[in-house]
Batch of 4 targets.
Target 1
Amino acid sequence: MDNSIFFAKFWGWYLLIFFFILSVNPKRIKQIFDDLNDQKFLILTAFIAIVIGLLNIIFHNIWEPSYKLIITLIGWTSLFIGIALFALPKQTVSFLVLTNIKLVQVIYTLLFLVGIYLLNIAYSIVLF
């Protein structure tokens, strides 16, 4: 299987699942923000984000104007957020907490649409 298709399936399903969990239980958003004050949670989250970002970048660092660019940008975003949480935890958490919960809902709705797009590319559900 091509790396691009693999990552389109992975990120598509991940974003779809993430959207439905937060839609069914919106209190999770506030809980995630509250958990960012726990240093153990923060270190673990940063570590996982760095590992996922690095793996994504190592196996898929394609900068062409297609769905492949979206996958690459997700990997780089994960890496940068992980590094920021690990290196500058207080500043990064302060920045993330300033983000309004309504804005987070808009962002994860947009990520849902990205997930649907990636799954459509991976499985050729709707031909266009």
Note: The mean pLDDT is 90.
Target 2
Amino acid sequence: MPDLHKATLQLMNGSSVQPMFAKNHLLFSLPRGVGSNNDLDWHMDIPLLGDTSIPGIQLFTFIDSVGPREGGTVAVAGSHRLGKSQQANSKEFRIQLERTEFFGQLFSSEPSEPSHIFDAEGTVDGIELKVIEMCGEPGDVIFMDVRLWHTRFPNFSERSRMMLTQRFLPEHVRRQVKNRYYG
């Protein structure tokens, strides 16, 4: 645990952060074809606040193994650099991004076309973007900027899987998010 705290401080340039929620969230996916929702829900985890500094990070902790092309969480590497000086919630910013070729194709893709999504690369506003899968073994942790566009992906494996997630934000960001969007 001290190593995770140290890594969090380093990623946040020394800013102290607090969990966004009182408890970690359990992410659970049923195996292929077992009554799960297969819609993609591309989103950011907090709104854009018009500030170019890192507003927070999210940790994903693997409880079960998630291998390549098995349908773990997917994210668009580099997307946290888009629109940094804007103020917009995920829905408002998504409308802007849908007008670009890269996100227009990505947001309209069906999860039945995994290779199309997993191999997606492009450029928006001069920023290189690439879809990546979150793969790992029990105990592995992935850190992610909370502005990164991501979605759960249908579980293509034959077994149920679990991950834990938590967002960590500086107190001033927690207040801004709460006041502006949940107040």
Note: The chain has one domain: 2-182.
Target 3
Amino acid sequence: MQHQVREPLDGTLTVARAGKARALFLDRDGVVNEEIGYLSRPEQVRFMPGVFDLCRRAQALGYRLIVVTNQAGIARGFYTEEDFHALTRWMTAEFAREGTRLDRVYFCPHHPEHGIGAYRKECPDRKPNPGMLRRAAKDFSLDLAQSILIGDRCSDIAAGEAAGIGTLLLLEGVEAEPCMHAERYHRIVSLQEALERLVP
């Protein structure tokens, strides 16, 4: 089963541009919003400093804005897929109020060890696997070599490297040690630093 939020809340439809486009891929927890552990309700959300500035600038430069997020909280039974979708709709509306728009949100609700029932499985979408990134590339005719990924965990970086994303940025805060299985990435200390890496 493929999992994605297909339409933004502002009523516009997601339509791939002709030819190859590029994307700014964002992990959710720890990049779009502060990491609190199994986020499920709007009142828990604290957006990361600079995320709206980053997204407005990226969109102005022609980047697609795509969130790719592991959601093991669904697998563990802490909240439901509908809870996730409701929160995503709320977050998308917040982006719209800030003058920017998420093109799509992909998520993986599975966990190979701690999933309950059908959610307990190995899944090609669960980072560090690159499944969500590759599906986005197909859905939006993306040039992954010209795209950027920002994550806060080595699993994000590994997924981006496996998918062939050109620029991999690790936001400091979670991973104290180097990402041992990644050959190329840059550490950044803020989303402002990521903004400076966007290419016109």
Note: Confidence is low (pLDDT under 50) at residues 5-18.
Target 4
Amino acid sequence: MLATAAAFLALNWGVYVWAVLSDQVVEASLGYFINPLVSVGLGVIVLRERLRRGQWVAVGIAVLAVAVLTVSYGRLPWVSLILGFSFGIYGLLKKQVGVGSVESLTIETAALAPIALIVMLASARAGTSAMASGDTNALLLLILLGPVTAIPLLAFGGAATRIPLSTLGIMQYLTPVFQFMLGVFYFDEVMSPVRWIGFLLVWTSLAVMTVDGLRNARNRNAADGLEVVEPD
């Protein structure tokens, strides 16, 4: 199951790297915005979880957002959908396995390492390997991608056991926010009015889901703090 999770993670990273290189950073950020909503949907479909009213409203707004963005792009935002669903399935599989973060990441890396080695050897043989190009800067950046990727994954696994899930969920929005800002303000990607509307709907959906989650957590904590007084 962890090997399958690793395959979905590889798909996620591969599509994300391709999106960045093809000037689709904003669409890639959308994928990570909708990821929490995908996780909610997977919880309902796979784990048979029941949604609260606020969660249903959030999902409905998200579906409307995808429809608006489809009109904006003239096609389904498939980059966003692949990124959102692949990482959502990755999280679902990790939850079902229930293995520690270090052990899980080790198994996932071991599962992908042989495939990565084959790709690297084939690339070197074809003369397209950046590792063998002799470019010191490119080599250094490629090496740094290892810890830049692994450290956040380990931190995420550790944080999940140390801080409230509601807090962790809100902090997960930081990544797509930074990606979106890079796409718009650094890479100067075009944002049409319709696309802005689509993103605003996504953010509205996330806001509704976040408020609902915080309210539910507060009510649950209040209920746990009540003392049950039994009659004499």
Note: The mean pLDDT is 82.
